[in-house]
Structures are given as C-alpha cells and as structure tokens.
C-alpha cells in the first residue's frame, strides 16, 4: 500500500483535530494563570472547572473528585504512593499483568501479586487469598495493554466490598481501597466509577486521541492521599503547580468524544478484529491468539508465531510500511521477555515470538488484509 499502516494504537493515538481546536485558545491568547484574580484569569478558571465537570460526568463523579495529571503513569503513581504513604506498615495487592506504571511504584512497598489464568483474567480466589488484615490497597487494571484482556472489575469490587464488611464486623478499622488503571479502557468500555465499584481510577490522554502528558486520577470523596508534588496547593493539594489548562481541556474533549462514540466504534472494530483473526487463521494456521476472545478489547489482536523472532518481524514489517509492537511501548527497549506473557504461561521462546496489533479510528479492512499478506510472506 502507498500509505503507512499504523497498528500500534495501544502505544499512542493521533491527536483528534476537534481536540486540537478546543485546546488552541489556551496555547496562545488565553494563557492566563487560573489562580490569578483578574477577570480574564477567572474566566480561564471557570473553563478549567468546565473541563473537570465534563470528565466527572463520564466517571459518574463529582468535579472535586477529578485530579488532572501529566498522564497515566503519574496518575498510577499518585494513587499507589498516595495511599501507601498514608498507611505505613501496610501492604497492597496487584495483578501479575499490571503495567510497569503500577508495578514499579508498588515494588516500593510490601506488595503481593494475584495470579491470572491462561487468558489473562484475574483468579478471584487467589486474589482473595492475597488480601489480609493489613492490606490497604488493591490495584487491578481494567484492560490489559498487551493482550487486551478485560478484567471483571465489578466482581472484584464486590469481593472487596465483602472483605470490608467482614473487617467492620471484626473491628478492623483499616480501609481497603480499590484502584484500577483504566488507561486502555476509556475508548471502548464504561468508566462509571460507581458501577465499577472503584475508589481510584487512572486515565491517559494519549490513549484516547488526546494530548500526550495529560491524564486524570479519580479520587473518591473522603479518600486521603499524600501528594507527590508540594507547592501552591492546586488540584486539591494533590498536584501543585500552575494548571495545564490546554491539556485539561484537550483531555476532557477527547474523553467526551471517546465515550460518546464508544459503542459504535467498538462494533466497527469488533468486525475488523474478527476479519483480522479469520485471515490470520487462514494464512498463518500455526499462529496462536493470546488473551480472552470473549473478554477482550475490540481493537487488540495479540499473536504468537511459533519459531519466529518478533524483533526481526517488527523490523521487516516496518520496512514494508507496517507499524506494530511486541508488547508495551514503555518496555520495548528492555531485553526481558514480557512479564504479562510469562504470567499467562508462555515460555520465553513463545514470548519472543509474539506480536501485538492494535487498531484504531483510522484502521481499514484493506489495511488488515495487506498486513496479513505481508506477515505470511515474512514467516
């Protein structure tokens, strides 16, 4: 094909033109600091509140429960460090397939890992066994960035609610909070926090056709966090510093667009996903699909191609104008095989023979047909 084919939307999405248009005034003429007292600045403050209110609408939250951050990584760090520094001597539980933005901060504390099955779905019995009387935080991602598996958050939320009730009866006053990294989910899934049963939720602008280095942490009312950055007390004292108004407006606009069209876009991508998988089975019969077929993001196809080397294939695909990935973009330079693939039972050799293709708003059926044809030639 004449134009490059981009199949790495899980790593980054292009900025939607409507988002850029919404941001543009705050990048140029309307540059005022929202903390200033003059009228022009107070108008900007009101527009920042409007962006916060729009995000809160989709989260089913109060505007005061929305904290703007510089991306999903910061949101995850604020959630984990913020809770754990409030409760020294306690522990937390995460799933074995979390993004490094959760695993790395969690490693600073007494952290246990809940196992997943071969499809990447959290083992609820094992999760329950890892939570003890000193557990203060559980962090389970909503949808996995590598294999696309969607976790049963409502069931996990109910499990945590049951444990809280048992603690109350036993006289244990230690809180038990539930955090989810929802950075990959917001394009396609319901993010209403009450329906999910979560206390903390992280989002990332660069995954939803918004600006990079923008994000949100939902913090349920009454939950106390220790801030990562001290200063002037912006963002409820949780993220001091002059607000990135253009980024907040861009993020809110991107989230609004993503949630408005998530049902239609999910249906479109599910059809493309089925087409892609069918073509792979026809032309690459040895290929193995990783992750759950039924509980899966509609834009994700993750394959193991036995006997192949994913680094060689990625270079060869790139030479043919096709951009894909071997796993998380954040760990692409690491020589370690994927922890996610190890957690679902793949050997190191199988992990190093695996590729991730993630589709998005610009993906067409013709692009997928061409990609499979090229991949078949290369293997």
How would you summarize the topology of this molecule?
Layout: E1 5-6, H1 17-27, H2 39-59, E2 66-69, H3 72-84, E3 91-95, H4 100-106, E4 110-114, H5 124-130, E5 135-139, H6 153-170, E6 177-181, H7 193-196, E7 200-204, E8 215-219, H8 245-260, H9 262-283, E9 288-289, E10 300-304, H10 310-319, E11 322-323, H11 339-343, H12 348-351, E12 354-358, H13 365-378
Helix pairs in contact: 1-8, 2-8, 3-4, 9-13
Radius of gyration, Cα only, in angstroms?
21 Å
How far apart the termini lie comes to: 19 Å
Q: What spatial order of strands do you see in the largest sheet?
A: 2-8-7-6-5-3-4
Tally of individual helices: 13
The mean pLDDT is: 96
The CATH topology of the largest domain corresponds to Aspartate Aminotransferase, domain 2
CATH A-level architecture of the largest domain:
3-Layer(aba) Sandwich
Number of strands: 12
Our count of domains comes out at: 2
Taking pLDDT < 50 over at least 5 consecutive residues as the criterion, the unreliable ranges are none
> Which range best describes the helical content: under 10%, 10-25%, 25-40%, 40-55%, 55-70% or over 70%?
40-55%
How much of the sequence lies in strands comes to 5-15%
The structural class is: alpha/beta
Series of secondary-structure elements, N-terminal to C-terminal: EHHEHEHEHEHEHEEHHEEHEHHEH
- The CATH superfamily of the largest domain is identified as Type I PLP-dependent aspartate aminotransferase-like (Major domain)
Largest sheet: 7 strands, mixed
Q: Look at the structure and give the CATH class of the largest domain.
A: Alpha Beta
Shape: globular
